TrEMBL record:
Keywords: Membrane, Transmembrane, Transmembrane helix
Lineage per the UniProt record: Bacteria, Bacillati, Actinomycetota, Actinomycetes, Kitasatosporales
PANTHER family, per the entry: INTEGRAL MEMBRANE PROTEIN, INTEGRAL MEMBRANE PROTEIN-RELATED
Membrane spanning stretches: 12-29, 49-67, 74-95, 107-128
Protein name: YitT family protein
Organism: Streptomyces flavidovirens
Cross-referenced InterPro entries: YczE/YyaS-like
Length: 215
């Protein structure tokens, strides 16, 4: 196995694991979750399943939606479905709830920064988009609507549904929405792996242009 492939695989799985950890940290902070986390938590409240298991199920369902829009999954896509949910449940089993803003706010901020770093790690590994990002890009291609419009429509629908089901919507959700783009942009540059075709690195600017918030 080449050194580059080893690095990419390590980035992929470390990034996905840290993404699950960061999502769990936001749950324990109790100040609001990222958009898909709101949906996962709401479904977990209604079904009695753990939020990590719900994340896996939702990811698998979203992946099935790729079929009619002819999206092709990669190793990173399938791994995304499983690893994030497992890491999330594992972290929630170890980390207790935090009470009081003096602890909640730093924990929330740490979770958001860690999420940005995790995003940069696994996307820069270049093993394919997560199921939710693939749905977005596929709908963009099929409908001809802008990435920004498609993304916004999906996020609004997800947050509204999750909140109606009892998911946690709060200051953390707003801070996440504002901060994750710049954070992911920064960490994509930090963790960029040279592409074999021309020696260039992953084009972090693509994320900015498309307003992509990974998952």
């Amino acid at each position: 196995m080449s050194r580059e492939l080893t690095r990419r695989l390590l980035q992929l799985y470390i990034g996905l694991a840290l993404y699950g950890v960061s999502s769990a940290v936001l749950v324990r902070a109790g100040l609001g979750l990222e958009p898909w986390g709101v949906l996962h938590q709401g479904l977990a409240e209604k079904t009695g399943l753990t939020i990590g298991v719900v994340s896996i199920i939702v990811g698998a369902v979203v992946l099935l939606l790729w079929i009619p829009i002819r999206q092709r999954p990669g190793l990173g896509t399938v791994s995304n479905v499983v690893v994030i949910g497992v890491a999330m449940d594992g972290t929630l089993a170890l980390v207790p709830d935090v009470h009081g803003l003096a602890g909640q706010i730093p924990l929330m901020l740490a979770g958001i920064v860690l999420n940005g770093a995790a995003t940069g790690l696994y996307i820069a590994a270049r093993f394919g988009p997560g199921p939710r990002d693939g749905l977005m890009t596929g709908l963009h291609r099929v409908t001809g609507r802008s990435i920004r419009l498609v993304r916004t429509a999906i996020e609004v629908a997800v947050v509204a549904t999750g909140f109606a089901l009892g998911g946690s919507l709060g200051a953390g959700t707003v801070v996440y929405a504002l901060a994750i783009g710049p954070l992911a942009q920064f960490f994509l540059r930090v963790f960029a792996v040279p592409a074999p075709e021309n020696g260039s690195t992953v084009v972090a600017g693509r994320m900015r242009d498309r307003a992509i918030i990974p998952r």
